[in-house]
Amino acid sequence: MIKNEKQYGVTKNNLKKFQDAIKVISESSSSKNPLLLKLQIDSIQSQIDIFEEEMKMYEGLKKGEITNVSRGFEDLSCGIIESRIAKGYNQKQFAELLKTSEQQVQKYESENYSNISLKRLQEIVVVLDVDVDATFNFHKKRHFKASDFLVPQGINPDLIRNKIRSRGTTVKMCA
């Protein structure tokens, strides 16, 4: 994911290098095994596709063409960054709105917002003026057996059972 203009520039440069690499490989193909050549080109092309998709997303957010992004809880940090970009805020402007330093926003983003408090998340949502929906899916308590896990030689299954139980999961051990 491209988070700022610097990363956008780096991605753009890398895209060009990878595109040039395909040209070089294709031009020197006469002495190579066709299968090896195809594998090399395909692997480079897959990275080119990733660069292009990331650039397209960043550009769409910056231009205001992308206004709604659906993210799961595990991708919340991407949603925050995408919202910041879509609102047209660079990290410095966003920091000013949050009444913090640009370095703090850079740290948040480098850590994918993994260490922010719920209160800070609420402040971010207000500053970005975004709607965040949460869906909680409740699952029944799961039961595992020791045979569900691969136990390395020399490890006591009772230790594993006790560790799992300490996390609130019921465990039935098979002899």
Q: What is the makeup of the main sheet?
A: 2 strands, parallel
- State the share of residues found in helices, binned by percent: 55-70%
Instruction: Give the number of DSSP strands.
Output: 2
Secondary-structure element sequence? Answer: HHHHHHEHE
Shape: flat
List the total number of helices.
Answer: 7
Radius of gyration using CA atoms only = 24 Å
Beta strand %: under 5%
Mean pLDDT: 84
Low-confidence stretches: none
Please state how the strands of the largest beta sheet are arranged side by side.
Answer: 1-2
Label the structural class: mainly alpha
- End-to-end span in angstroms? 48 Å
In short:
With 175 residues, the chain is mainly alpha-helical. It has 7 helices and 2 strands. The longest helix is centred in the N-terminal third of the chain and has 30 residues, at 34-63.
